[in-house]
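[step 3/7] fold_predict: job queued, chain A
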Amino acid sequence: MQQITSVNNKLIKDLSKLNKKKYREETGLYIIEGFHLVEEALKSGRKFQYLLGTDEALAEAETSYNVDLDQKNVIMINKAISRHLSSTKNPQNIYMILKIAQPREFNFNYGKWVLLDNLADPGNVGTIIRTADAAGFDGVILSPESVDLYNPKTQRAMQGSQFHIDLIVHDLVDAINQFESVDIPVYASMLDKNAKKLNEFDLVPQLGLVIGNEAHGVSEFIANLSNEKLYIPIIGQAESLNAAVAAGIMIYHFL
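[step 4/7] structure written:
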């Protein structure tokens, strides 16, 4: 186990930059923090580039998660460094550095999927992914214009679901075409009373559910590619539903 005591250490400086998208893209690495996310990563068998923590945090990792502290890529840090690495106000003093692992090719020819069309809020994206995981969906496809999957806020909102289901950043047009080529229906969520109401949809064994941008909804082009436009009736006076709430309602309708 290594030990680093200065925030000016080159490795620490480099790792702290992973809280910014530019450096994640340059290095192909991202950072997670907190015991729960580290535990989920370990349980899923993910190999880490580095595990960093204070002496107390690493002792907890050794006791609770059977982490071998003698590994060269396990690094003991102090609380000053922990605060430097953290993207939260109250650090848990344990961090893991992982490789970004996006597959170059993927066939969408089975299962139940959520498609995110240019979602901008990391909390919404993380919550939708967590909900899809809870409902037993196979995965979530994010358009390249959606919020960065490896954003620390997105990672926290997923609460470990990123290690349970497939998460693919991919062109939605190509994904929809692949679904339809094998007769998997694609339904686009719309704030449109002329669309088909959610309770009119029968359960299907496989499908794609498109959720649109928080401000603008599903793009017209993507909506027109879909098999059906889906509307969640609003009974009260609210103009719309939060994207993550709407996604949750639809996901559980199609269980």
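[step 5/7] annotate
The longest helix spans residues 122-134.
The longest strand covers residues 94-99.
exit 0
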